[in-house]
Amino acid sequence: MSAPLVVSRHPLVLHKLALLRHRDTPPPLFRNLVRDLSQLLFYEASLDLQTATVMIPTPLEECPSHQLTQRIGLMPILRAGLGMAQAIHESIPDARVWHLGLYRDHETLKPVTYYNKLPPTVDVDVCYVVDPMLATGGSAVAAIDILKRWGATRIKFLGLIGAPEGVRLVQAHHPDVPLHLAALDSHLNEHSYIVPGLGDAGDRQFATC
Description:
The chain is an alpha/beta fold. Helices cover 33% and strands 30% of the residues. A hairpin with a 5-residue loop joins strand 12 and strand 13. The chain starts with a strand and ends with a helix.
């Protein structure tokens, strides 16, 4: 049985996603929307993080409170994942962030790794792979492969928009990895772009289209 596929139905996610998709949304607003959506998705995807009870002093008296006990790792897939990772890092500044460079070969449509700076040993408890678009699923599978070879045992994928083809591929290769998306769209076109999608997330974030 595959790990859950969670497609957010939060009203704020739905509203901001509509603005994100619009073809006339300028890059500065697009980046802000990626930031907002990423933080909302991370909030939903991190509900099962473990905490410990600690006592803290308030201005009046000591109070039992909670602190995270797990070490968090973020792996943005370059370059489109950068905006998502930065937004999540703002929410959890103690998280480790490693960048993974992958590009899709235009002829084979297979992912090619060009950058990987993971440390020699695993130093986190939960890893979040972040990439706005889960299209063919090749890059996501490759990223998760790398993390598992490294020794990571608990991994989640966070994306803004996914295609059924990509979801099926990740679930086939990594049925233990939960997928968290803002939307699951109809299909991939002949160029492996998500339909209706939003175009190229990297180009729209960084004004390179």
